[in-house]
Design brief:
Length: 98
């Protein structure tokens, strides 16, 4: 199987929302998969490696989409909450002269 250690780090990066790190690790994972494909001695072995790598990356892509959607929802909720927050500003100050 393509580098399990890279896969564990990739999943952790996605789950933590560190998408820049995940992008770099995806590239590293792809390079490791290519090395394993070149090292495979049989066509059947290359097929297995390619299928495993593709399935793993598809799962990580799905996870990344779910995490980004969740983060977007949190940002949206936070931006709506700030509209109702009691934040003092110059625009909300009243000056009364008698």
């Amino acid at each position: 199987m393509v580098s399990k250690q890279i896969g564990v780090r990739l999943r952790a990066a996605i789950e933590s929302g560190s998408f820049e790190t995940a992008t770099a690790l995806s590239k590293e994972y792809g390079e490791a998969a290519v090395q394993e494909l070149r090292a495979a001695t049989t066509p059947q072995g290359r097929i297995v490696i390619a299928h495993e790598a593709a399935a793993f990356l598809e799962d990580r892509l799905h996870l990344a989409r779910v995490m980004r959607s969740h983060i977007a929802a949190q940002i949206g909720a936070a931006s709506r909450l700030c509209c109702y927050a009691n934040i003092p500003s110059i625009d909300q100050t009243w000056f009364v002269e008698a």
